[in-house]
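Example 3.2
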Amino acid sequence: MVLLLMFFCVIFIEGVNTVGVTEMERLYSDLFARYNPEVRPSLSSSQTTEVTVQMSLAHIMDLDIKQQVLHLIGFVSLRWTDQKLTWTPGMYGGIDHLFVRQNQVWKPDIAVINSVSDKVYVGDKEVLVVVTSNGSVTWEPVINMQVTCQVNILKYPFDESICGLELTSWMYSEDSVPLRITKTPLRMVMAEHSQYRVKFHNAEIFKINHHGAFYTKLNFLFKLSRRASYLVLILVLPVTLLAILCVVSFMLSPEVPEKTSLAITILLAYTVYLDIVDKELPEISVQISHFVKYLTVLLFLSFFCVTGNAIVFVVHKRGKARELATQEVTSVTHYSDDSTVKPSPNQSSFHSADVNMSECKGRRLQWRHKTKAEKMNFIFLVLNSVLLALAISGYFFSVL
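Structure, written as tokens:
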């Protein structure tokens, strides 16, 4: 008895499944028997097919600021009404929606006009389209493209850029396929990005006049703000510390020749950083980054530091040479006087006074030369410190 009951249950379930598949096949056959996906679904040529568009941003792969190209991943939700794909669910076993491939139904020819990839049109033959019983069609193709982006490098590495996706119907004008946006035109479904954060997003509608026909263009915009912590640690902070180290070189004594070598090493380090920044930023003259200006000013200050240290060192060496020459002349003069004339006791006292006066003059001369080098060193120290303070404050006031 139990086995017989189980047998009838299996037969009943298989019968229900068979009925369901049959109803689905019959619905599919009735809908697409005379359906042409190349023809726009309207009862008359004057009737428009309004398409509602919503974009969802899933991930930002990369923003190449040198090439000004944004690589993004997302999907676009497009909805319209196909009056040729309507049915009564009660006549087909209660089926109220249907999944078909996108090439089996009519769809708008949506193109990304700011794409730099080989692929311009959205959609793929494997993408499914949802068709409901009232004729509503929902198409959600995935977008994995590289698009142009106007990068604002003025405040690099604290830069903010407005990027986006520009969609339009390539052949259908506003008179036949008008494009509209939803109340929430751009949804953010992406996780937190490690390099950029999205500050705001919006959508705009434009009308393009092409040979007398108006076409709708949708701009889905979002502002990307760079997380600058990493670049501050590897770019801004090191070049600032190098500039401070250049000022410190003037605190060394003029007798130390290594101070000039230190200044030259700092100058070479700035050229390396200029090469790094040149590989990162675009080569444009319309908008020059404040960081490039800041780095160039620090490069000139480093050159000024090398020149100042060299001048101080040369002045110090000349003072030393003059001091040695004065001491030699004084020694020879005293030796000649002692060998030719034998002074009397009174003359000896006068001669001792002359020697003391010569020594005082030599010391004054030596002090005068040493003081001149030290004074020049101090002047370069103060001047370089003031210029560096102005450069640092000017840069941070311009970017913050």
